Amino acid sequence: MRPVCALFSGGKDSTYAIHWAIMHGFDVKCLVTLMPSREDSWMFHRPAVEYTRLQAEAMGIRQIIEATSGVRDEELVDLRRALKRAISECGVTGVVTGALLSDYQRMNINMVSEELNMRAYSPLWRKNQAKYLMELHEAGLRFMITSIDAYGLDPRLLGKVLDKTDLEYIVELAQRYGFNPAFEGGEAETFVIDAPLFRKSIKVEGYVKRTGEYSWRFIITNASLEGKPAHA
Questions:
Q1: Where are the chain's structural domains?
Q2: Element (H, E) at 176
Q3: Does residue 126 sit in helix, strand or coil?
Q4: Does domain 3-121 have CATH number 1.10.1040.10?
Q5: Packing angle between helix 74-90 and helix 103-115, nearest 10 degrees?
């Protein structure tokens, strides 16, 4: 089993990449989470990232957390530092990412990984975005939207655990208004509250706040682990 770390933001893509890695026989030794000090990070997800500790606990996987400036190029220095910790503390030889379409993100992760003699795995790369969104639900991931920055994406979906009908609605809106249904263009951010790897699910409370003409946030005020039904 190849020992790897996984870049983890708490969103649907990084969570599904971990799911993929474990299903394909990788030994995920730790999660690496970068916490940006600003909302407009070029590389890393910001909304609700402070609650990733609950997701890591739910999966029973160690988490390495590093602060990052969120400033372009400086973020790579922070990523390098975090991956060095994963190598020295967890003995990993590779890194799994949830990159979907962002060449900037994927190329920079690959560059830093190569410098550290690590192999980078991006199993979700260039998937059909609409089909991928439905694939997540079929695989058992349950998630909510925590931020919206796109014209046409319905703010009533914020803070709601999305079911299959909601996801079909998002695909329909994406076709109508021209945004990416999997949100790889920054149209929205997500937070996973349950997945097959979770031993417990996450209960979330919060409120919706409008931050711009087409920008909204679901502000989490409280989150806690809760037991899953015996059949889950």
A1: 3-121, 130-227
A2: helix 164-177
A3: coil
A4: no
A5: 50
Using one digit for the tens of pLDDT, what is the confidence trace for 15-36? 999 999 999 999 999 999 998 8
Contact 204, 177 (CB under 8 A): no
CATH fold for the domain made of 130-227: putative n-type atp pyrophosphatase, domain 2 (3.90.1490)
Coil vs helix vs strand at 32:
strand
Give the predicted TM-score (pTM) of the model: 0.92
Please answer whether residues 191 and 210 qualify as being in contact, where contact means their C-beta atoms are separated by less than 8 angstroms: no
- Helix (H) / strand (E) element for 53: namely helix 52-59
Tokens of 211: 């931050």
Residue keyed to tokens 């910001």: 46
Residue owning tokens 């609950």 = 54
CA distance 232 to 226: 13
